[in-house]
Amino acid sequence: MISAMGAQMRGAPGPARGISIDSRTLEAGDAFFAITGETSDGHDHVEKALAAGAALAVVARDKAGRFAADAPLLIVEDVLAALNDLARAARARSSARIIAVTGSVGKTTTKEALRCALEAEGETHASAASYNNHWGVPLSLARLPRSARFAVFEIGMNHPGEITPLVQLVRPHVALITTVEAAHMEHFSGIEAIADAKAEIFDGLEAGGTAVLNADNPQFARLHAAAQAKGVARIVTFGAAEGTDVHLKNLTLQPGCSVAVADVLGTPLTFKAAMPGRHIVENLLGVLAAVELVGADLALAAIALGRMRPPAGRGVPVVLALGSGEATLIDESYNANPASMRAALSVLGQMETGPRGRRIAVLGDMLELGPDSASLHAALAEGILAHRIDLVFCSGPLMHALWEALPPERRGGYADDAHHLEPMVASAIRAGDTLMVKGSNGSRMGVLVKTLSDRFRDSATAFPKG
Prior knowledge:
Blueprint: H1 2-5, E1 8-10, E2 18-20, E3 30-33, H2 46-51, E4 56-60, E5 73-76, H3 79-93, E6 97-102, H4 107-119, E7 124-126, H5 136-142, E8 150-154, H6 163-170, E9 174-177, H7 191-198, E10 210-214, H8 220-229, E11 234-239, E12 246-254, E13 257-264, E14 267-273, H9 278-293, H10 298-305, E15 316-322, E16 325-332, H11 338-350, E17 359-364, H12 373-378, H13 380-386, E18 391-395, H14 400-405, E19 411-415, H15 418-428, E20 434-438, H16 445-455
Parallel strand pairs: 2-3, 3-4, 4-5, 6-8, 6-9, 7-8, 9-10, 10-11, 11-12, 16-20, 17-18, 17-20, 18-19
Antiparallel strand pairs: 1-5, 12-13, 13-14, 15-16
């Protein structure tokens, strides 16, 4: 660390067994990086981190005087820049085959699917949670063990130019773009500009690297042209479109799972996803392409994917215990845009209900959609009708556009925020219902999920049979 970051040592730092930027989750033996963020300064938490057992703290030179002379410190000019330097050193020493994932929808689920598929073959390192921004990517890369055989990194953005420096840190052998959709639109002139920003992932591909692209996405031709223009050595396509390298030949959607038949770069493969939805299977086609490209075993990967469970807030089913029986809540509260909302409504439409049960959608605002926000919210009414959603609850000022577009018989309740919506939803739930909760993070739908789960607490998480 001293060599990579050009750091000055003070006190007696111990061997660092991990890296942390959050004193609340730090484990004994971690190196604590005192990053200064938009709302907090990590230097305010250095003493707490050291008291919790941190092996050392990495601090800025102009703030080092705040700490005891014998405190175990590594002193640098800029803490975030030092974390980036450590990430570069971790990448330089690694012999792992590395995959980078981006896309408007499905990044984290795809990253977790890659982790699951590759762990069947050998030691795999992957980004924690959704650590995909200017501090999450270098933190994840700095944690890369020398012994890892595979590594998977999620890379996100909400402005042009954000992906390039991150992917140049990661230097992947395979770059996978799940899809390009209307997300973070307020920062872009249109969907084509989003595609161009996602194409920045090609800027850091290793020589001889491969781009993996969704041929079913309307922006495919633009992404393909960008990959060619940037000198990508190989482009592999996936989807249901004819001529794709990873071709979906048949798909059976069931309430609790999906079963697909595909040709993966010349290898016939039948696989099961333990999550329902066509969008899930499409992303798994890209996963299987990447698995093959890094030299892992397809059969082992397919078996592992059949056991995968969704990450938190991305389709996790929870049992709600009612006095007269049970209802099922599908937690889709981790973020939303029009594409992911349509996919979630489609899945809800496939879910089974109990006797006299209803399909209920509880929806919060989709944020950062720009001037077309009202029409994009109102347009969700089409999917609600098409997928036989019986009742809809809406939260937030943007969702009022959908509320007004709904037929009166589909209206369950409306509130300005999730807190005030919760009692309406709680009083409406009855045995046999299946409800899905979704919204952008800023709409606080995750808090509503927790409140409902606590109110109707049951010991088990429910995974539908299939």
